[in-house]
């Protein structure tokens, strides 16, 4: 009798997802699917609203990385108000936005690595779920837990100083930013009393990488061999090939490192990328048009950025990138668990960048906004923590939005996440008579590597109710398990 | 003839001029009576009823009732606070007030009153009316989702001949405030900005200026609505 196993909802990812694993009569995996049960109405909500409202409205899509949506929309609106295509802002406008973005990626990556991913690494995938969470980490390694909290707080404080609020601020406006950094804010972030200072933040970020290297040495099985499959990778890179999470050109490489999207102007993304709808998921499947639906899919996010970038323009992170590239023989890493490694390199990069910007006088004074000839269409892209984020808007002559298209990072990662689930399910569940909690968590670990933002952040921490249902080919429930 | 009178507000003896309305006299004595439709310098209307006080035991609107000698006024009582709170809640559920993306947030009097009254969520069900956004005017947007029909704009924004640039249209539950199609054409930048400032909510927006004031510098970011009045130092007359 064929069986269908449902893991619902996936814990410790940002939001809700559901995994179904269909087994055939012999216990072999017939098919696996990651269903996204979210429905985003934002592309419809913004219609009719004035264009300058979009950066503030659409960021409500998410409570973990709202800044990414805020900035992607603001970049699209820059084009609409004639402020250039992402590099036409005043130095203050661009640097304040960058500072906000580095703070955001820093806090989001920190949250993911320490709070969501490290329990699996520290305690093991099949360890006791009651211990396998951030509270468990705090009991075991107090120092690490304190660092995690302080690092996240630091990123949030940077966001507050640039956007006005830690979550859902208003800093970026069409053509620039609405504030400078005050000297008090700058000193608070640089020198850190009563908080930790930026040098401490950089050294903790380096420490997290050292911790990872040590772990990697001892756990090659999970980091290198747990999941591996060929994928293409897509991200923004700076025009000279440097890692750049705020602005650049679109580059994609295949699993062997061959460039398949040649540093294109992202304002024309729709000429190169299309999205496929599949009946069983609300989430679309994007792909590179030139390579078609079957083979044109790609991975985005930290791993993709390490694989596409030629170098990093901050010294400590560059050193780490060199180690990463050397370990992978100068080729892209096709190991999704290297996503954690990549994320840590980016944490360090963001910390170095924040220091650079906090010491830049342009954030303290200078013109905030620039405007030019208005147009009726704008595209804005940023590298959000989870990957490339596309915002595209059209407005009418009365300044109202008439069209919005958003391709969010997690959507870009739809196919690779499905591939990862398939591989892990085949590995741990194949031919097994009973499905254990450890097996289920293995599937979740694979999904979690992508840090998917499935709809909202309300269930970010700890153990959520987990329900597995085993169904036969006629959809009769033959087993059901609650955690 | 204008003369000095003595009134009592919540047991506090206050001195006022006989040509003042209660709300003005209270303000000068450092006492805040909440209101939404009243606006300094504009003829009072008594429309929103939020300024309801008890005058010698009877409920009256403080913005339209002139003071008289020996008046006993109750303002800060549980009963009146609850009444005012209910009105704010009714206004919130009657329109579509989505503060998170509204550029008036932080400068909005309705939002500020909701904060002052500690309203976490209205006690009444939301009506979710279907309303339009009129963006056809070159300088301003009229968002009907947020209009509380206080008529401040109609009373305050006039051309040089004293004619209102804004007007009521339709009746009953379909009533709305619109820009007069003829007079609206002459709306100067200055008047457009004044209209936005006069509107207590985010129903009149000057185009392309949204979110220019950072969080922290908006009107009610630091101090609750009314605190400017309550912090007046009163010198004994
Ligand atoms: S537009 Fe504003 S000022 Fe005019 S009636 Fe509506 S809420 Fe009052």
* Class by alpha and beta content of chain B: alpha+beta
Uncertain runs of chain B with pLDDT below 50, 5 residues or more? none
CATH architecture annotation name of the largest domain in chain B = 2-Layer Sandwich
Give every kind of bound small molecule, once each: iron/sulfur cluster
- Which two chains form the greatest contact, residue counts included? A-B, 24 and 18 residues
Name the quaternary structure: heterodimer
Tally the helices of chain B: what do you get?
Answer: 6
* Assigned CATH class of the largest domain in chain B: Alpha Beta
Percentage of β-strand residues of chain A: 15-25%
Low-confidence stretches of chain A: 11-15, 455-468
- β-strand percent of chain B reads 15-25%
Class derived from helix and strand content of chain A: alpha+beta
Gyration radius from CA atoms of chain B, angstroms: 19 Å
Spatial extent as radius of gyration of chain A: 22 Å
**SSE ordering of chain B:** EEHEEEHHEEHEEHEH
The biggest beta sheet of chain B reads:
5 strands, mixed
How would you write the strand order of the largest sheet of chain A?
3-2-1-15-16
Count up the helices of chain A.
16
Molecular structure report:
The complex is a heterodimer of chains A (about 475) and B (about 240). Mean pLDDT of chain A is about 85; it is low at about 10-15 and about 455-470. Chain A is of the alpha+beta class and about 475 residues long. Chain A contains 16 helices and 16 strands. Chain A has a five-stranded antiparallel sheet, with helices on one face. A four-stranded mixed sheet of chain A has the order 8-7-6-11. Chain B has helices at about 20-30, 80-95, 110-115, 150-155, 190-200, 225-230, and strands spanning about 5-10, 10-15, 50-55, 60, 70-75, 135, 140-145, 165-170, 175-180, 205. The structure holds iron/sulfur cluster.
